[in-house]
Amino acid sequence: MENRDYQLKPLPTLTATQSWCCENGCGETTPRVEQFEYSRLEDKRGRLIESKTAPVWRSTCCGADLFVYDEASSTSTPWEN
Ligand SMILES: [Zn+2]
């Protein structure tokens, strides 16, 4: 059985002109840790046999993906979990 080791990627320290933004268009947000289920095994009745999760960063406002916006260069960089 495959057993991958997922670890939470450390967040970069943002500069004064950078801010975390929500991919849903909410604007500035704060990253929070969520458990992302990347593997789920159920029996024929839909009962959970095994669930594998990995910690990922999501926006606090709606749990969407994040990107870093840099005011100085007007660039957006998606955050890859
Ligand atoms: Zn949002």
Topology:
Blueprint: E1 18-22, E2 27-28, E3 31-42, E4 48-59, E5 66-70, E6 75-78
Antiparallel strand pairs: 1-2, 1-5, 3-4, 5-6
Structural commentary:
The chain is elongated. Helix content is 0%, strand content 49%. The mean pLDDT is 93. The chain contains no helices and six strands. A hairpin with a 5-residue loop joins strand 3 and strand 4 (48-59). The chain has strands at residues 18-22, 27-28, 31-42, 48-59, 66-70, 75-78. The chain has one domain (18-78). The strands form two sheets. The chain has a four-stranded antiparallel beta sheet with strand order 2-1-5-6, with no helix packed on it. A two-stranded antiparallel ribbon has the order 3-4. With 81 residues, it is mainly β. The site of zinc ion (ZN) has 8 residues, from loops.
Summary keywords:
81 residues; mainly beta; four-stranded antiparallel β-sheet; two-stranded antiparallel sheet; elongated; binds zinc ion
Kindly summarize this structure in a few lines.
The chain has strands at residues 18-22, 27-28, 31-42, 48-59, 66-70, 75-78.
User: Can you give the helix content as a percent range?
Assistant: under 10%
Low-confidence stretches: none
Per DSSP E runs of 2 or more residues, the count of β-strands stands at 6
Ends: how far apart? 24 Å
Count of the domains = 1
| Physical arrangement of strands within the biggest beta sheet | 2-1-5-6
Bound molecules: zinc ion
Mean pLDDT: 93
What's the overall geometry?
Answer: elongated
Compute the CA-based radius of gyration.
Answer: 16 Å
How large is the count of helical segments? Answer: 0
- Give a short account of the largest sheet: 4 strands, antiparallel
Order of helices and strands: EEEEEE
Strand content is: over 45%
Kindly name the structural category: mainly beta
